[in-house]
Amino acid sequence: MSPQRDLGYFGPDSVSWQVHREVTVLFGGARAVLMQAAHPLVIAGARATGFYERNPWKRLQRTLVLTYTITFGTKAEAHAAADRINDVHSRISGVDPVTGLVYDALDPELLLYVHACLVDSALLFEEFTVGRLDDAGRQRFHEEQMLAAELVKIPREIVPPTVPALRAWMREVEDSGILQVTDSARRVADLFIHPPADAEWRPVLRGVSRLAFATLPPMLREQYGIRVGAGRRAAMAATFAATRALRPLLPKRVRFIAPYQEWMRRERGLEPGDEVAEARRRVGIRLEP
Predict the structure, then answer these.
(1) pLDDT per residue over 65-79, tens digit each?
(2) 18: burial class by Cβ within 10 Å (0-12, 13-18, 19+)?
(3) Segment 15-63, tens digit of pLDDT
(4) For residue 19, which of 76, 59, 67 has the smallest C-alpha distance?
(5) Theoretical Cys-Cys bridge with 7: which of 11, 27, 123, 221, CB 3.0 to 4.6 Å?
């Protein structure tokens, strides 16, 4: 297979591509980030990197580029992105000043929680905004993402084997009492409620943040101070229903994320743009010539 035809570890027939190509599923990432921020040891690691002091929105974007490169990049790009993530994590450890607990960004249980939030949120927003997957499709997505988990040093044997088991494990984390919305978590939430002027998709982020907050587990919603009454539930259901109905009518440049659009251009024999490649260079993905 030539480098031009290297479709990475997943490819267009994978459920991972079908799910992650959708912009509406990407918006579910806001929910994942809010859940991750509520874990004091996860947010302690982010705080240790100077996340808040050095343009937090751009740092979120860089994390997103790395994550999506693992799905849509070539095998070499996927490994380079994973290496970059692992290198950053290798330098993050300490004692959380809020809980007094030791944290290490390479702790498999912490990594699994971050991964589980991403998988659960992607599947939830696929269900609410696309609705193509059945139980078998959701399971296949979960199993494909186990490979992505392994690339960032999560041992496959600790990943719950099914989607219901993964969600049960997440409920166990909630029931353990470790999750708490600290001031640091609220600062992350504020990025979505009041996005900076240079944030992409800024005009829709407030609406996205409302959906993200409303779909959080009840315990976390309460800690973030979000109340979802009957009227709000009805409005949210109507929003998701309208999104499912309108999504197929949207132009592909709005409906699909940039890496997938790049692949579509190549499939049509068109010269790909340099947006995706430049984004990967900016986040530190370097390939040997």
Answers:
(1) 888 999 999 999 999
(2) buried
(3) 999 999 999 999 899 999 999 999 999 999 888 777 655 566 677 777 8
(4) 67
(5) 11
Whole-angstrom Cα distance, residue 268 to residue 278?
A: 21
Radius of gyration of the chain (CA): 19
- The pairs formed by 264-268 with CB atoms below 8 angstroms and a separation of 24 or more are 266/4
Q: Cα–Cα distance between 192 and 209 in angstroms, integer?
A: 6
Q: Report the predicted TM-score, pTM, of the whole model to 2 decimal places.
A: 0.90
Helix 29-37 and helix 108-129: axis angle, to 10°?
150
